[in-house]
Amino acid sequence: MTDPTPAAGPSSQLAEISLDLYLSDPHSPLALTQARLVAESLISTGALIVRDSRAPREANDRFIDLFEDYFAQDQGALKADERPEVGYQVGVTLENTEKPKCSSDEECLGIIASLDAAERPLDVTGHGADPKCRFFHRMSERPPYTSKFPVLEAPNVTPRAFQGTWEERVNEWGGFMKQAVEGVTRMLAVGLGLPEDTFLDAGRYGSHLLAPTATNLDKYGHLDTIFAGFHTDLNFLTIHGQSRYPGLHIWARNTGKRIPVRIPPGCLLVQAGKQLEWFTGGLIKAGFHEVVCTEATLRAMERRKREYPDRPQIRISSTFFWHLSPDHLLFPEKQLQEEAERRFGPQKTYGEMPVGDQVRRELGLIALMTSE
Fold first, then answer.
1. What is the per-residue DSSP string for 83-122?
2. Would 312 disulfide with which of 64, 72, 138, 140, CB 3.0-4.6 Å?
3. How far apart (Å, rounded) are the C-alpha atoms in residues 130 and 333?
4. How is the beta sheet containing 258-260 ordered, strand by strand?
């Protein structure tokens, strides 16, 4: 979600793992070491950098070009692609719709208050809704049974101006990110001492979403503007490619420090979400993050304006949300919950709940769907 500058400074707090190395021989000692590094990095920081040579930068560039062109359309064309009746879980979500959960959640506000003043995110209490837009494109396998959560199986939206080429163009980069994050789920399971396919099986029919965001920098590209307020993701794992404009900050569990993220060339960023936190009983915490306009964002805007004067100034994030299956019963794995309590003390009571209900509840908290 940042410029293509190699990781340096604070970003070096994030471990870099090789999916190539693991996939070449998953049972080798070196692969097992990499798997343990995945688990430990997610436990300590909630994020990691993944190197996967199967995901070419050129495909990410084509994806970003496509969504710059899409979001450069007029408001009427974009509004035709809204689907509020399914909680915006397919199609477009326009700016000033999605509200960061932390602006009204007492637990989250307490976490912000516990941080050192210099490490806190930009203030979300008076922020309102995010100025970013989003597009959701589902990349999931329909289950061979009747789901209790059909709203999470809504058909994809194909924009009128892109008829005939849309599916192929979005699925190219989406496919690369999906196979990368599913490789990480395999490594994570092994690193946590579980069978390799534990998470893959639990997420086989997940409501996986290719989910780029877009921020109009001509309109909102001002220093310290919040593009996406301080929040965690509700899904299992989130994976990002590089963005053309910096601005992503994450917070590591082990330090409480704000980390400006830079993704090295040929790499992707993976972050833990709420479903993973729940599954592990708090051993891995969902990672807090924000996207804001920084000095580096402004420099990137000036550079892009000089080098590509005919391209729209829109910040596209290359993002994919990987979910557990909606009908999967979510509850803490006993051995992982015990490990969480051994390492970090008593954890919150997670209980059990179908993933589909967890998603509906979280969407209500971020003002996309009325939770019941």
1. -GGGTT-SEEE-TT-PPPGGGT-HHHHHHHHHS-GGGPPS
2. 72
3. 35
4. 226-231, 289-292, 248-251, 258-260
3-state DSSP assignment of residue 213: strand
Nearest to 218 by CA among 305, 307, 129: 305
User: 98-107, 138-147, 180-189, 209-218: which range is least confident on average?
Assistant: 98-107
**SS3 state of residue 159:** coil
Question: End-to-end CA distance of the chain, in Å?
Answer: 33
Interatomic CA distance for residues 295 and 303, integer angstroms: 12
Report the distance separating Cα 106 and Cα 112, nearest Å.
10
Distances (CA, A) of 213 to 71, 201, 314: 10, 28, 10
Give the pLDDT band (50/70/90) at residue 158: very high
CB 297 within 8 A of CB 260: no
CB 320 within 8 A of CB 238: yes
Radius of gyration of the chain (CA): 19
3-class secondary-structure state, position 299: helix
Which DSSP category does 331 fall into? -
Asked if residue 297 lies in contact with residue 286, where contact means CB atoms within 8 angstroms, the answer is no
- pLDDT in the model for residue 91: 97
User: Using N-to-C axis directions, what is the helix angle for 166-191 and 29-45, rounded to 10°?
Assistant: 100
Burial of 257 (0-12, 13-18, 19+ CB in 10 A): middle
The conformation of residue 28, written as its DSSP 8-state character, comes to: S
Query: Which pair of structure tokens corresponds to residue 69?
Result: 């062109």
On whether the CB atoms of residues 205 and 143 are closer than 8 A, the answer is yes
Cα–chain-centroid distance for residue 263? 14
